[in-house]
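Annotated sample (chain length 166).
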Amino acid sequence: MQSQRVVWGRRSAFNVQKVLWLLDELALAYQHRDAGGEFGGLDEPAFLALNPHGRVPVLQDGAVVVWESHAILRYLAAQYGDADLWGPSPAQRSLADRWMDWSQTTLQPAFMALFAAFYRTPAEHHDARRIAEAVAECERHFELLAGWRPLYPGGRDRRHRLAPLF
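Output written by the structure step:
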């Protein structure tokens, strides 16, 4: 019997989207339960039993519960992925690991600074210098990504499969 998979979180949340993408990429059946944001529920005892931090996403895979988006991605790739997605050696797996972590600690904060300065700030309060600096930082990061060509076993470029992970 196949284990029951449940993903907790809002579909509009970036970190939840990463998990949903990988589940679909791996063709794994799952149930989605809205939680957080306008759906609430993160402070409920039943949810806190899944994730004591009260954050989404959370994956229930049978008896296994995993929280934090990148931990979930690593778990799914290791448990259900093929060698192209989750390499057989630590060196190969580190290709995905380092870019996933870089994206969360470097790219995402830079992008969110731009998002906040431009999209979340009313136009009459825009700071042109702050926006230009945020754009320049994001451009540096995207130029680095554009030049990266990960090769996996068999010499195939698998960037198209990994891109949503970071």
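Annotation: Residues 43 and 145 are 38 Å apart (CA to CA).
Annotation: The beta strands are 5-8, 31-33, 58-61, 64-67, 151-152, 156-157.
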